[in-house]
Structure formats: structure tokens, C-alpha cells
Amino acid sequence: MGTVGKLDCAHHNRCGAPERRRGRAGATLEGKDLRKAGLKVTLPRLKILEILEDSATRHKSAEDIYKALLESNEDIGLATVYRVLTQFEAAGLVTRHHFENGMAVFELNEGSHHDHLVCVVCGKVEEFVDAEIEERQKRVAQDHGFEITEHSLILYGRCATHRRRA
Fold first, then answer.
1. CATH code, 103
2. Which of 13, 112, 125, 160 is deepest in the core (most CB within 10 A)?
3. What is the pLDDT at residue 20?
4. Phi-psi region for residue 87, left (φ > 0), alpha (ψ -120 to 50) or beta?
5. pTM of the model
6. Rounded to an integer, what distance in angstroms lies between the CA atom of residue 78 and that of residue 70?
């Protein structure tokens, strides 16, 4: 996980604050990526990107992001967080998931496919990649005359912490 310097103003290139950001997989998001996606580079957008990139929790709700902004004394409202996340989703910068609890969570779209394990007790989300499962899904689709264009696999259960308590 990379580090990100503090941003002091919306014109960070002129004030010397860094524009480059590194995501978990080493993917770099920059203000130019916002511009390329048709979005103006603003402080709220950069702050929300920073939270998504630097958080230990990869899947965050709008409320989680809002709380993180409040904790860092940022004056960005919850409605703005929702609006920015919707814009990021439309631009392909984030992916929205609706897991069993019904709450939307967002993760940076780093371009690699993965599936999810979700704890039904605490909501913990783990990502995984399994080549056998991916291959089996393709065979099942072919056996039924389908071509997979996209898919989502979410497995629900109890995480290790809550299995011990059961």
C-alpha cells in the first residue's frame, strides 16, 4: 500500500502537494485519471479517492467514507460523498456491490476479477481468486449454450472469528 501526502487545496499541483496515488495492487490513480474519465479534479473527489486507496478495509460504504472525512476534519457532506461515488461508478473508477445486508459498498476498480466471501454476522468481506471455479463456471455456461459476459460470485458464511463463537 502506497503512501499519500496531504492535499491542502483543490489546486494541489500549484501548491506542491502530490497528485499521484497508489492503490493496493500498485495501480496509480491521479488527477489526470479523473480528467480522462470526464470528471473535474476537485478536493472532495481527491479526498474520497485517497480514503478508498489508503484504507485497510477495501470495501467501504458511503457512510464509512463520510466518517473518515469527518475524522480528518474535512468539510465534505454525506450527499457529496454519495454524488462523488455515483460519478466514480459511472466513470468506471469504482465498483458498487450490494451484499446480503443490503448496504451498498464501493471498492476501487483495479481491473482484476475477483470473487467475495461475506460474513453474515459481522459483514467482513474477503476477496479471492480461484482458477478452478472460474474454469468450472465457463464449462457450465458452455454446457447450457451460454457465453459469460460477466459474473459475480458471493459466498456467504461465518468468518473465522464468528465460527469460533458459534
1. 1.10.10.10
2. 125
3. 35
4. alpha
5. 0.69
6. 10
- On whether both 158 and 92 belong to a single domain, the answer is no
In the chain, which stretches have pLDDT less than 70?
A: 1-31, 166
- Beta-carbon-side half-sphere exposure of residue 20 (alpha carbons within 13 Å): 6
Q: For residue 103, give the nearest of 63, 68, 70, 69 by alpha carbon.
A: 63
Same domain as 141, residue 102: no
Burial class (CB in 10 A: 0-12, 13-18, 19+), 158: middle
Read off φ and ψ for residue 105, nearest 5 degrees: -125, 155
Could you tell me the CA-to-CA distances from 51 to 57, 99, 110, 111 in Å, in that order?
Answer: 10, 21, 15, 19
